[in-house]
């Protein structure tokens, strides 16, 4: 277990500090549950009262909140960002694999960089190229001619189909499937004729993909996930989609095919986005959004009806069903009023 003094943390995190520079911590915890020997943080003023009973050895907070805490402190402009960096320093997550397991099946025609680790029962097919320090977890499948850049980690049971490109410093969680066939069929008098999906999936650098997410390969052109994108668990990214740099996609999002999403967008959980259209840069779609048309102006967009008491919801639904009738009556009244005014 790694431990840090207050002074060492201040130097590492570019923070100022108050208190004994030799105070030591070895773990991070919430304010409500922190114990001596641990560090915590205050990112929201509404939790400021918890400082009164906090037992942490060190608290990360802003200069403004310092007066509410009498103990040792790291003083920063953004405590939540500092928490993220602290969590990286104190991370105890094991690696997905160490060394190359004897049960791994690796083609003689695959190319492995330096210090590659491959877990038990993983399969690496011919033409695969793994960069330096790549880690492939147990039970993963890496299809023919796939390229994975240096320092990328795949947790257990990730399936990567053929001709996929994954960049450097990526993290892919368990159960994710990359490069599966897109939903492409032609109809011949009621019979579905499969269209082979001939494109690829290309994933940039510093991309993180959550557990059990599916990213389909392109039909003809490629599905592209650009640098710095983060995608949560159980998302569906359809064929030919493009997601711009540093966009964040929350859990359960469904994206139809041939969709182009810009840079620095935030897509709320359980949103559904229609295909064959474009969303511009810096768009936020709140949770459970249903996006049916292109978005060409940055901003925050929402849809859906918030949860209501069932009786109220039934009345609302009834009104919605009669909107067309109400609209016709309103137009009729407007016409009569205009006639009376004349």
From TrEMBL:
InterPro entries: Hexapep, LpxD, Trimer_LpxA-like_sf, UDP_GlcNAc_AcTrfase_non-rep. Catalyzes the N-acylation of UDP-3-O-acylglucosamine using 3-hydroxyacyl-ACP as the acyl donor. Is involved in the biosynthesis of lipid A, a phosphorylated glycolipid that anchors the lipopolysaccharide to the outer membrane of the cell. The active site is at residue 239. It catalyses: a UDP-3-O-[(3R)-3-hydroxyacyl]-alpha-D-glucosamine + a (3R)-hydroxyacyl-[ACP] = a UDP-2-N,3-O-bis[(3R)-3-hydroxyacyl]-alpha-D-glucosamine + holo-[ACP] + H(+). Pathway: Bacterial outer membrane biogenesis; LPS lipid A biosynthesis. Homotrimer. The keyword Repeat applies. This is UDP-3-O-acylglucosamine N-acyltransferase. GO terms for molecular function: UDP-3-O-[(3R)-3-hydroxyacyl]-glucosamine N-acyltransferase activity. The keyword Transport does not apply. HAMAP family: LpxD (MF_00523). Coiled coil: none annotated. It is an enzyme of class 2 (transferase). It comes from Frischella japonica. Keywords: Acyltransferase, Lipid A biosynthesis, Lipid biosynthesis, Lipid metabolism, Repeat, Transferase. Its EC number is 2.3.1.191. The gene is lpxD. Belongs to the transferase hexapeptide repeat family. LpxD subfamily. Residues 22-89 form the UDP-3-O-[3-hydroxymyristoyl] glucosamine N-acyltransferase non-repeat region domain.
């Amino acid at each position: 277990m790694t431990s840090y003094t207050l002074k060492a943390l201040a130097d590492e995190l570019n923070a100022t500090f108050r208190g004994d520079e030799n105070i030591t911590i070895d773990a991070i915890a919430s304010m409500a549950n922190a114990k001596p020997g641990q560090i915590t943080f205050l990112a929201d003023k509404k939790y400021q009262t918890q400082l009164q009973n906090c037992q942490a050895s060190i608290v990360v907070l802003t200069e403004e909140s310092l007066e509410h805490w009498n103990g040792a402190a790291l003083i920063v402009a953004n405590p939540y960002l500092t928490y993220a960096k602290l969590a990286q320093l104190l991370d105890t997550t094991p690696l997905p694999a160490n060394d190359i397991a004897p049960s791994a099946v690796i083609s003689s025609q695959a190319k492995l960089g330096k210090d590659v680790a491959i877990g038990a029962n993983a399969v690496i097919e011919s033409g695969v190229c793994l960069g330096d320090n790549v880690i492939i977890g147990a039970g993963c499948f890496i299809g023919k001619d796939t390229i994975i850049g240096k320092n990328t980690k795949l947790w257990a049971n990730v399936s990567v189909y053929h001709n996929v490109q994954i960049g450097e410093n990526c993290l892919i969680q368990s159960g994710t499937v990359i490069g599966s066939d897109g939903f492409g069929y032609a109809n011949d008098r009621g019979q579905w004729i499969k269209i082979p999906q001939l494109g690829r999936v290309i994933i940039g650098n510093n991309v993180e993909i959550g557990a059990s997410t599916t990213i389909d390969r392109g039909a003809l052109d490629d599905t592209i996930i650009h640098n710095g994108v983060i995608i949560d668990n159980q998302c569906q990214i359809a064929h030919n989609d493009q997601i711009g740099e540093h966009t964040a996609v929350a859990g359960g999002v469904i994206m139809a095919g041939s969709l182009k999403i810009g840079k620095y967008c935030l897509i709320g959980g359980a949103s559904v986005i229609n295909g064959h259209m474009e969303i511009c840069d810096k768009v936020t779609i709140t949770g459970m959004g249903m996006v049916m048309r292109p978005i060409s102006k940055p901003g925050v967009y929402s849809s859906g009806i918030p949860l209501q008491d069932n009786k109220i919801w039934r009345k609302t639904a009834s009104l919605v069903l009669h909107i067309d009738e109400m609209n016709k009556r309103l137009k009729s009244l407007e016409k009569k009023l205009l006639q009376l005014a004349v």
